[in-house]
Amino acid sequence: MTATGFALRTDGVGKRYRKGWALRDCTLALPAGGVIALVGPNGAGKTTLLRLVVGLLAPSTGTVEVLGHDVTASTPQTLSRIGFLAQDHPLYKRFTVAEMLRFGRACNLRFDQGLAERRLAKLGIPLGRRAGALSGGQQAQVALALALAKRPDLLVLDEPVASLDPLARREFLQVLMGAVAEDGVTVLFSSHVVHELERVCDHLVVLNDGRVTLTGDIDTLLTEHRLLVGPRTATDLDRAGAVVEAVHSDRHTTLLVRDGALPAAPGWQAQPVALEDLVLAYLRRPSEPSAAASSGVAS
Amino acid sequence: MTWLIWRQHRTEVCVLGLLVGLFGVALLVLGMQAHDLFPGGPARCAGEAGTSEDCAASFRRLDDGYGFVENLLAAFYLVPVVIGAFLGAPLLARELEEGTWQLAWTQAVPRMRWLAAKLAALAGVTVTLTVMFTAVLTWFRQPFDAWEGRFQYDAFDLEGLVPVAYALFAFAVATAAGAILRRSLPAFGVAFGAFLATRMAVALGARPAYATPLTTMEPVPVGGSKDQAGHRPVTGFADWMIEHGYADATGRRLSSTEYYELEDAADRAGANLNQFLHARGIQQFGVYHPADRFWTFQLIEAALFIAVAAALIAVVVWRVRRRMI
Questions:
Q1: ipTM, 2 dp
Q2: Is 3.40.50.300 the CATH number for A6-209?
Q3: Where are the domains of chain A?
C-alpha cells in the first residue's frame, strides 16, 4: 500500500510530559494491511503513542513515520490519509448528525458523504438528531462513520469500545471489521481488554509502563511461545534467556518460554499458550529492561 | 472553515450582536433627544458652558435629563471586554473541554490553518462589534464631550481606539487562558480580572505619564468668592487636570497642612481668604494634559493593549504549533 510497506514506523520515540516520561524508546515497524492491537494497562502510554501517530502530539525524542511520511509535518495530504477516533469518541455535541457530516466534508480533501450516510442509515441513526442526544453507542458509530468517510489508509482508534455496553461493543466491532474487509484499511487500535483480540487482530503491540515489551504477528507469537509444565524446580533455568515467566505451585513449575519449537526436556509437557495468558505474562514482567532477563516470579 | 466557525460560534455572535443592537437602538433614541437640546449641534457649545447663556441652559437640561445615562454608561467601558472575552474564551477551551480538538486537528485542515482562520474570524467579529458599539456611544456622548471634554475616564475609556484595544486584549487573554486552563468559564473570568487589574494600573499609573504634563502657575485672583478659590485654575474645559493646588511666591508647592494653616490664619484675621492669599503671593498651580493630546494618548494606550494582546496570541500560536496542547 505504501512505498515502504509499513503503515507505521517509529524510531526511538519518547514523549515526556511535565510529570515525566509517558513513553520511552519506542521502536516499531507495523505492516500495512490488517488489524493491529495496542494492548496495555491504563497509564501504559497507549493514548500518548496513538496521539503521536496521528500527529496530535510531537515526540520529545525520535521520529514517527506514518504511511511513509513524517507525521509532524501534518500536511493536508498526510492528514487526509489518517482517520482517528479519539477516546470517548468526541463529537460536537450541539451539532446535528448531518452537521457533523458537513463538518467532515468541509474539513477534508476527500470525504465520502454517501458512504457515511449509508452506514448511518443502516444503523438507524437519524441525521437530524443532535449528536449530544444520541446514545454512547450511536455517538461512537457516528464518529466511526466520520473517520471512515475520509477513506483513510490508516485508521487509528483509541479504546474504541471501552465505554460501550456489550451489545454496542459487538455492533461497533462488526461495523469496523466490515469496513476493514471492504476497504483494506489498516487499523491500529488500543485496548486494555485482552479477550476477543485473537478473533479480530493480526498484529500485537504490548505496551507497559511507557515501553514496548512485545510486538509481532499474533500467529507467529503464538507458535513461538509455549507453556512448559514440569515438576517443581527453582534451578531449571538453563533456558533463562527464553523464559518469559515462571510460576511455581506446590508441586509444579510452569514456564512460559519463547524458544520456537524446541523439544521439551524429559518430564516436561509442552502446551500452547492462549493469547490472553501470553499478554498478561508480558504485562506482569518488570518493565526494567535489565531485569527482564531474570525470570519474574508470580503466584 | 467559514461554515464551521459560524456554526460553532453563532450563539455567541448572535447574543453579542443582539445586545449591541438593542443597546445601540436605546442610545440612538435617547441620544436624539439629548442632541435636540442643542439647536445647531452640541459642538457649537463646546467650552461655552460658562459664557453662553443658551449653552449653559442646554447643558443644565442635558444634566437633568440624561446625566444618569452618562453615569450609567461610565461602567460600559467593560462591554468591549465582555465582547472580546466571550468570543475568545471558547475558541480553544471548548475544544479542549469536550475533547473535540482531537477531532478538529485530525481532519485534513492543518492545525495552524485552523487556528489562523479561527483567530482571524473571531478577532474580526470582536473588532466589528466593538467599533459599532463605540461609534454609537461616541455619538451619544457628543453633548457631554462638548461640556466636559473627552479626557475624563467616562469618555476616554469609551471613545476612539481604546475600546477596540480593550476588546482585543480581552480576546487574547481569554484565548490564551482557555488554552492553558482548558475551561471556557474560568478563561472568561481570567480575562475579565486581568483586564480590570491592567486597566486600573494603566489608567491611574501609566496614562498620566504618556507625555510630560504642562503646568500653569498664576497668583490667586483677588476677586471671587471663597468657594471659587479652591476650584480648578484656569485651563481649558477639555484639558485633563491631573493635579492642582497652591504654591508660595517662589513656586514651592504647599502641602495641605500648610494650606489649612493659611486658611485658619485668614479666619483668625477675619480677612477674605482670596485677598489674604493674594497678599502673601500665594499662587494656584495646575498640572494637566491639554485636550489636543487626546488622540496621541488614545494611540499610545491602544498600542499598549494591542501589543500585550499580540504577545499573548503569539504564545497561543507557539503552543499550538509546538503541539503542547
A1: 0.87
A2: yes
A3: 6-209, 220-298
